Amino acid sequence: MANFASEGVSCLGTDVSEKVVSTINSGKTPVPNMEYWLGFNPKYLVDSGMMSATVDWQKVLGSEFAVHMIAIPTEKEDNPWDGALEDVMTKIATSVAKSGNSPLVIIESTLTPNKTDKLVIPILEKEGLQLGKDISLGVAPRRDWFISPEKNLRTLPRIVGGTIPETTNLMIEVLSIVCDRLVPAPDHRHAEIVKSVENAYRHMEITLANQLSLAYPSLNMIEVLKLVGTKWNVNVYHPSFGSGGYCIPLSSKYVLEGAEKPDYLTLLRETVQTDSSLPRIIADRIADGGFKNVGILGLSYKGDLKVHVLSPALRISKRLMERDVSVKINDPYYTADEIKKLTGTGNFEFPDGLSEFDCILIVAGHRLYKAIPEAKLIAHLKKCKLILDNLEETWGTFDWHSTGIKYHISGDSNWLQ
Fold first, then answer.
1. Residue 281 belongs to what H/E stretch?
2. What is the mean pLDDT of residues 170-187?
3. Which domains does the chain have, with CATH numbers?
C-alpha cells in the first residue's frame, strides 16, 4: 500500500485485526522497524488520503478498485492452511458475480503448489466467472527481507504468472509501478511453486549445516562452512538453533503437500524432521547438563523483527519446561502478556533480570542486546555458567575466559557438549 500510494495510486487495505487497521490509519506501520525497510515514513500518505485501512472487507470490493492484492496467511499451527484463502476468494467471486466488475486479482501469499487450480479457480467457476473475461487471476509471491533496506519491493526480482498470457502482461503493467525487476513465468502454475521451491532449497542447505555441526562436534563448523563457501557455486550457511519464520521451515511442507508424486521427495521429508527436532536436541543437552534456570533472549526468530512463527524459542522453551527447567523470556518487541500467552513462561527485564539464570540462550540478536557494554553485562551474570548464541555472535568479542562462563556460538567447537 505504501509503495503504490507513494507513486500516486490510491489504496485501501482490509484486515481482520482492528489493531492492525487502527495502527495503519494512525500513520504508523504495524510491523516494528518497517519504516527502516521502506526507506520512508508512510504517515504523509495516510494524512493525504492516499492510503487507509478498514475492517469492513466489503468496502475494498467496490467498483472503484480495479486490482485486488491478496496477502493473507496460508499457514496455521506449523502447517499449510487454506482457510483464509478460501474465505477471501469466495468473497471476491461472489462480489464480482453480483457487480459485473472485472478486476485483476493478484495472489501474493505463498501457495501450496497446484492450489490455484485445485481451490481458487473452482471457487470462481462455481460463481460462473470466466477467467480472462469476468475476472483476471494471477500469482506473484512477494519477496522481501525486512531487516535489509536494499532488499525491498522495488529492487528484488519478482516472479509473475497469470492464468493466460494477457493476464501476465496486465500484472506486469500494474506491478511495474512499484517493482523494477519483474520476471514472467510461463503461467500461474509455474509462478506459484517458485517461492516454495526456492525456500526448500535453502531449508535443506541450512539443515545440512546443522547436521554437520552435530556430526563433527570437535570442529568449528562455522569456519568450515566459510571455507567451503569460497567455492564460487556454494553458498555459506551458519549452523543455528533451527530455522524459523513464515518461509523457510514451511517451504518444504508446501512442496510436499502439493507434489503429484511426493514419495520422490525423501530429502525434504528428512529436512522437515531434522529441523523440527533441533530445538529439542538443544533443550535436552541443556537439561542433561544440569542447568535449572534458563533465560531466553528473543522470542522472535530473527533480530529486530516481531515474528515468532516457528521460532526456535517456542520449541526450546516448551521442551525445557517438560524437563522441569525454569524458563523466562525477554523480547523488547513483545509484552509480558504476549510472552505468557505464546509460551506459557514468564518474562524478565534486560539486563537486570539476567542475574537469576545459570544458562542464557540468545535466539534473536536484537540491537538492544548488542548495545550493552561488556562490563555492564558481565556484572549481571552472577550465576551464569553457559551462554549459547544463535547465529548473531551477539557478544562474541567479549573476554569470556576470565569470567568462567562458557560462551558458544551455534556451530563452533563442542557448542552442545
1. helix 266-288
2. 97
3. 56-192 (3.40.50.720), 248-409 (3.40.50.720)
